[in-house]
Amino acid sequence: NPILLWFRKDLRLDDNHALQAAAASGRPVVPIYIREPEAKGCGPLGAAQRWWLHHSLAALDKSLHGLGSKLVLRTGDALSVIERLLEETGAEAIVWNRRYDPAGMAVDVGVKKTLRDAGMKANSFAGQLLHEPSRVRTGTGNPYKTYTPFWRALEQFGEPPFPIDAPAKLCAPGHWPLSDALDSWSLLPTKPNWASNFPDMWVPGEAAARGKLGDFIETALDSYAVERDFPDKPATSMLSPHLALGEISPARIWHATRGLPKNIPTDNIVRFRKEVAWREFCYHQLFHFPNLNSANWNDRYDDFPWRSDAQLFDSWRRGQTGYPIVDAGMRQLWRHGWMHNRVRMIVASFLIKDLLIDWREGEAWFRDTLVDADPAANAANWQWVAGSGADASPFFRIFNPVLQGEKFDSDGGYIRTFVPELADLDNKYIHRPFEAPDDVLRRAGVTLGQHYPRPIVDHALARRRALDALASLKNDE
Ligand code: FAD
Predict the structure, then answer these.
(1) Interface predicted TM-score of the whole assembly (ipTM), two decimals
(2) Tens of pLDDT along the chain (477 residues)?
(3) How would DSSP label each residue in 397-463?
(4) Between 359-369 and 341-349, two packed helices, what is the crossing angle to 10 degrees?
(5) 233-239 contacts: CB < 8 A, separation 24 or more?
(6) Which of 88, 104, 253, 309 has the most neighbouring CB atoms within 10 Å?
(7) Which residue out of 372, 382, 399 has the highest number of ligand 1 atoms within 8 Å of its CB and is therefore the one to mutate?
(8) What is the pTM of this model?
(9) Which parts of the sequence are marked as the site Electron transfer via tryptophanyl radical (predicted)?
(10) Which residues are catalytically annotated?
(11) What CATH architecture does domain 129-160+206-288 belong to?
């Protein structure tokens, strides 16, 4: 009788240990994906990631067809769906790859126990991370709280397991169980179709992910360490949305950066691997601190005097703050469902420190709008910027949005792409239009307050206010 293969955040055939085990069992394989209730299992998915998921499931189904198989889609509580499918197919075994977010883990533990108690075989495998988070611990058995020793521990583990190739064929069952139609899940936006620009930027699916990895190594890895901070340069891998839904494994990425030609300086390779290891560190935090997206890792921040101001929050979301680098970032997020890492740090600092709006509001907005929304990386990075996270940037380090823009987008190319109303402004003023003389603005066709907003806060005053707020905490840094 058949074996069920449960796909979750591992929407790939390559380097997929559960798939390998299912194929090696010699039984007919029934690949399934379950749309679990919101807030359970894989959800809740943000709107942008639902767009990605639709296309990723379609791509996975196509790849499975290449193996003589297909993807069965079902909706509902994972355990009930699986029990029904076991009955319908006569299967007595199921395999899956582990996930490490608290909601997903809770579902998996329950499913495994219930099925095993009922005499079924339920086995899970590693593959979402380089190393199992339960294995990475300090000498005293505790989780790591800072990144550098965590990285050293990863180095001591040695290389992650070598990635395995997809099987050439899967044995099909004599009778396929019914599947939901993908379109019936309504994952794509309709009215309005705010994702209309996404296809210019993204091709979901594992084939595109592998292609992107190859292109990145060939064209950008050799200057990654220096150029990765400049948002106008195609200098980073753009693999994050593929990683978020598991279309490529971190082990595949890691091993692709081994044995490269000597013309790629080692510091670039190490730097890139260290970023992949940051993802790992974020999961390490989430694994040991399941409330990462709702509670301060450092409870000193629990009494922080956040302000609530719907109008300012809305200006930030819409990219109408009057600070061009912040607005460019927020509009890149609207247009492409993605934002450059340097700019994510700038816009997060602006929300938290210039507007004094709770980091959780920003985390939730990013979760809904990023195609790479990830429960670990998003929460950990927001807490990192807020100063409340593990090994965080101190709260008193407040980014000046003008100087950040001038340093990392000196010729304003990024601003001109995403804030076109400022496109004709001189480089001297592109990051500070509010200081431009009238004739310069006139020549550029910009009237502040009409074509482009005046700053919604004065950065110098906002900085002072943020430091006062910090000083009001009992255990000031
Ligand atoms: P590359 O520079 O090519 O890096 C390779 C991979 O390393 C990335 O794909 C990613 O998986 C990982 N990585 C790189 N930087 C980080 C980092 N700082 N933390 C964790 N992993 C990292 N990343 C997400 O994947 N999902 C999120 O929801 C997310 N939210 C963020 C929120 C804020 C406020 C900030 C400051 C950062 C956030 N990041 C998030 C991290 C980072 O911005 C993205 O991973 C990166 O921009 C993705 O681009 P890339 O794939 O080209 O990265």
Answers:
(1) 0.99
(2) 999 999 999 999 999 999 999 999 999 999 999 999 887 766 678 999 999 999 999 999 999 999 999 999 999 999 999 999 999 999 999 999 999 999 999 999 999 999 999 999 999 999 999 999 988 999 999 999 999 999 999 999 889 999 999 999 999 999 999 999 999 999 999 889 999 999 999 999 999 999 999 999 999 999 999 999 999 999 999 999 999 999 999 999 999 999 898 889 999 999 999 999 999 999 999 999 999 999 999 999 999 999 999 999 999 999 999 999 999 999 999 999 999 999 999 999 999 999 999 999 999 999 999 999 999 999 999 999 999 999 989 999 999 999 999 999 999 999 999 999 999 999 999 999 999 999 999 999 999 999 999 999 999 999 999 999 999 997 644
(3) ----HHHHHHHHSTT-HHHHHH-GGGTTS-HHHHT-GGGS-HHHHHHTT--BTTTBPPPSS-HHHHH
(4) 140
(5) 236/340, 236/341, 237/212, 237/213, 237/272, 238/212, 238/338, 239/209, 239/212, 239/213
(6) 253
(7) 372
(8) 0.97
(9) 306, 359, 382
(10) 275, 278, 306, 341, 359, 382
(11) Alpha Horseshoe (1.25)
Q: Are 390 and 296 in contact (CB under 8 A)?
A: no
| 299-471 CATH fold | DNA Cyclobutane Dipyrimidine Photolyase, subunit A; domain 3 (1.10.579)
Pick the CATH number of 3-127 from 3.30.1330.30, 3.40.50.11720, 3.20.20.140, 3.40.50.620: 3.40.50.620
Q: Is the CB of 373 under 6 A from ligand 1?
A: yes
What is the whole-number distance in angstroms between the Cα of residue 421 and the centre of ligand 1?
29
Q: Is 75 annotated as a binding residue?
A: no
Would you call 359 exposed, middle or buried from its count of C-beta atoms within 10 A (0-12, 13-18, 19+)? buried
Q: Tokens for 23?
A: 């194929």
Per-domain boundaries in the chain? 3-127, 129-160+206-288, 299-471
Extract the runs of DSSP E, i.e. beta strands, from 91-232: 93-97, 121-125
Residue that the structure tokens 């309005």 belong to: 192
Is the torsion defined by CA of 220, 350, 330, 367 positive or negative? Answer: positive
Residue 338 Cβ < 6 Å to ligand 1: no
